[in-house]
Design goal:
Elements lengths: L1 H12 L4 H26 L5 E3 L1 H8 L8 H20 L1 H9 L2 H25 L1 H17 L1 H17 L25 H29 L6 H16 L6 E3 L2 H6 L12 H15 L2 H10 L2 H11 L1 H11 L6 H12 L3 E2 L2 E2 H21 L1
Helix pairs in contact: 1-2, 1-3, 1-14, 2-10, 2-12, 2-13, 3-9, 4-5, 4-9, 4-10, 6-7, 6-9, 6-14, 6-15, 6-16, 6-17, 7-8, 7-14, 8-14, 9-17, 16-17
């Protein structure tokens, strides 16, 4: 539910209608269900594919750019094609890896910051709805961290659903209309949305996903994985999907001993996980209708709770190296400020300014 809320916030910020939002969710669920099954069976490894929650958070933080949904879809398609290129021509992946992890993490922390702040504001404005959720989240994060976000956010939606804060639900049908969105390729939007979405997805999902699978004894063929997920993302983009990528936390669950005592059979768990995702797609429209009826500030607050660990981890990485601390701080502050220069949003400029400060410091220290 937590990732649903962030995804819906991101899609609506990009100008998606209620029907387009439901369609995008359903198609992405089917997409990462199919890709999880395909890659797991093909590679005989527990490969899990999901959408990028940090990527969705970035989209939600970019609402001030005022892009139309067809322009956003053009940017989604560009981001997906960049993933394909990363698989086909590994040099692009090497270029991405040249960006210091502190700067990538600081950009991610800046993107997520508005959600975390929304949690504080809503906690004061709606204490009976948000404070119990925070208490449950902190307790579970201490004793059963895997379940902290799912249970806390489910409680949040339950409390909000029983409160008078929920508006009228509008759902035209149980199943979403699968209408194709014709992408519009606007250069400014591609730079403002497409490139940062690609970088956030690579830095927060694909590269950590590869590292986690490697650490658990399942090295993945980068070319095949990126080409497949990028191509799948490109297909879903025509229905409003903002991207499919390797899972990180879910991958750890499916690749661990809890999935099967026999490491050679753990791919079966991720395959069945794909089937569950496809089943969930059936309920995308009514769930989207409910979430869209929740006041935006409460939706952002719940998303902020779900992103607390991601935010704290990114912030820790951003300031982990004394020599990179200033560059990380500049990157974070630029991303968190919500600025737009020449029509291009803060995430892109956060990366640019952070890299410039890093290069200047690096040049000065070498003299």
């Amino acid at each position: 539910m937590a990732t649903f809320g962030v995804a819906i916030a991101g899609l609506t910020a990009m100008g998606a209608t209620k029907d387009q939002t439901a369609t995008a969710l359903a198609v992405m669920l089917v997409g990462y269900g199919v890709l999880s099954i395909l890659l797991s069976v093909w590679l005989k490894k527990p490969v899990s594919v999901v959408w990028s929650t940090p990527g969705a958070a970035f989209l939600a933080s970019s609402s001030a750019l005022g892009v139309s949904f067809d322009q956003a879809v053009g940017a989604f398609l560009i981001s997906s094609l960049l993933i394909v290129i990363t698989g086909v021509w590994p040099w692009l992946g090497r270029v991405v890896r040249l960006i210091p992890p502190q700067i990538s993490a600081a950009m991610l922390a800046g993107v997520i910051f508005p959600f975390v702040i929304a949690t504080v504001h809503s906690g004061v404005q709606f204490p009976l709805l948000i404070v119990p959720v925070l208490v449950v989240w902190f307790l579970l994060n201490r004793f059963a961290s895997v379940w902290a976000s799912p249970i806390a956010i489910s409680l949040g939606f339950l409390l909000i659903g029983l409160s008078p804060e929920v508006g009228e639900m509008h759902s035209t049908s149980f199943l979403p209309e699968l209408a194709i969105v014709t992408p519009v390729f606007d250069a400014t939007v591609m730079i403002a949305i497409g490139v940062p979405l690609y970088l956030v997805t690579m830095a927060s999902q694909n590269l950590p996903g590869l590292a986690i699978m490697q650490s658990l004894g399942y090295p993945l063929p980068v070319r095949r994985v990126f080409a497949t997920t990028g191509f799948g993302s490109a297909i879903t983009a025509f229905f409003g999907g903002f991207g499919l990528n390797l899972a990180a936390i879910t991958a750890a669950l499916n690749a661990d001993v809890g999935a099967s005592k026999d490491p050679s059979k753990r791919w079966i768990a991720s395959s069945w996980g794909g089937v569950v995702y496809i089943i969930f797609a059936i309920f995308a429209a009514p769930f989207a209708a409910f979430v869209l009826a929740v006041p935006r500030e409460l939706l952002l607050a719940l998303a902020g709770i779900a992103l607390l660990n991601t935010f704290s981890g990114a912030l820790k990485t951003a300031i982990s190296d004394d020599s990179m601390r200033l560059a990380g701080a500049v990157t974070f502050l630029t991303g968190a400020a919500g600025i737009a220069i020449l029509g291009v949003g803060g995430a892109f400029w956060a990366l640019v300014f952070g890299v410039l400060v890093w290069l200047l410091q690096k040049t000065a220290s070498s003299k």
